[in-house]
Amino acid sequence: AGLFGFGNQPVISVSFAEASERKKVNVNGKELLVFHAQDDVRGTVTITPPRGKQRMEHNGIRVSLIGKIELPNERGSACEFTSLARDLESPGELLGERQFPFEFSKVEKQFESYDGISVRLVYLLRVTIVRQYNTNVTSDHEFRVEVLQNEPEINTPIKMEVGIEDCLHIEFEYNRAKYHLRDVILGKIYFLLVRIKIKHMELAIIKRESSGVGPSTFNESETVSKFEIMDGAPVRGEVVPIRLFLSGFEQLTPTYRNINNRFSVKYYLNLVLVDEEDRRYFKQQEITLWRKV
After folding, report:
1. Secondary structure element (H or E) that encloses residue 103, with its range
2. Centroid of chain to Cα 63
3. Of 39, 4, 37, nearest to 19 (Cα)?
4. Of 91, 98, 87, whose CA–CA distance to 54 is shortest?
5. Apex 242 CA angle, 236 and 245, nearest 5
6. Own/partner pairs for 74-83, CB < 8 Å, 24+ apart?
7. What CA–CA distance (Å, rounded) separates 117 from 207?
8. What is the tens place of the pLDDT at every residue in 169-186?
């Protein structure tokens, strides 16, 4: 439920149906209900006239379901990709507290909610009281959407080579190219030629967020996690296993690819070798993340 109202304004609250049974997530200090892409969104809007008044004239009351992409670095650049409205009450007079049921059924919520560094993808319910002589009263109530997916039909292993001529030759492989958010990344690294003194080796998950259009594109990169997979010098023929549990990283999201031509979020595995002179040799490989049904 949400609340709006101060001064001489009407008070608006929203209660979602089956709220107690839904998963909740904390986003920027707010606890939000989670809906899946195919879920109906329904509940009750409660409106109370301004304090000290038992009645309130209006030119109509409506509730809208809105999906939008916000780019905080670009003022006024919010882009709505979904907007549906339902009339709750035709123009007239509100006498005392009133409750209005609402329902948005079979509404496609094709994108998953996202909170990034330079972009947000938000779903909300907006209640609007239209008034003739005063400004309209609006109240926004955010909720989250998670998009569940089935196992990818094609999910081939990743095999790559890293080499420095006559000095280093390694092959590495990961068991798949696509992983769900609770998955385990398994892999192996084969040392075929080692003529430089390797001090240690680490594997990092890199998250890259790209948002905006044209010259106003912003690119942000962050290391989700980094851990050492080998300490000490390897020898020719050595095989180093990799086992990385993704379930430990709550900040991971599904991969987003060019959402509404506004933003993308991609993930990479970054393999880094460090020699005794602290020179770094690395190889990056993109992986696709998805949310499992």
Report:
1. strand 98-104
2. 25
3. 39
4. 98
5. 170
6. 74/212, 74/216, 79/260, 79/262, 81/111, 81/260, 82/107, 82/108, 82/109, 82/123
7. 11
8. 999 999 999 999 999 999
Using the structure block, give the residue that is written with the tokens 């990818």.
Answer: 152
pLDDT, tens digit, for every residue of 188-244? 999 999 888 888 899 999 999 999 887 888 999 999 999 998 888 888 999 999 999
pLDDT reported for residue 163: 82
Distance of CA 118 to the CA centre of its chain: 12
Burial of 46 (0-12, 13-18, 19+ CB in 10 A): middle
pLDDT (tens digit per residue) in 241-261: 999 999 989 889 999 999 999
Tokens of residue 209, six digits: 């967020």
pLDDT band at 72 (very low <50, low <70, confident <90, very high): confident
List Cβ neighbours of 183 (8 Å cut-off, separation of 6 or more): 246, 247, 292
- Six token digits for residue 238: 């050595």
- Residue 2 confidence (pLDDT) above 60: no
Name the nearest CA neighbour of 146 among 119, 103, 114, 120. Answer: 114
Task: Determine the pLDDT at residue 7.
Answer: 52
What contacts 290, CB < 8 A, 6 or more positions away? 149, 152, 178, 179, 180, 181, 254, 255
Residue with tokens 């899946």: 36
Question: Among residues 76, 74, 157, 82, which one has the least CA distance to residue 113?
Answer: 82
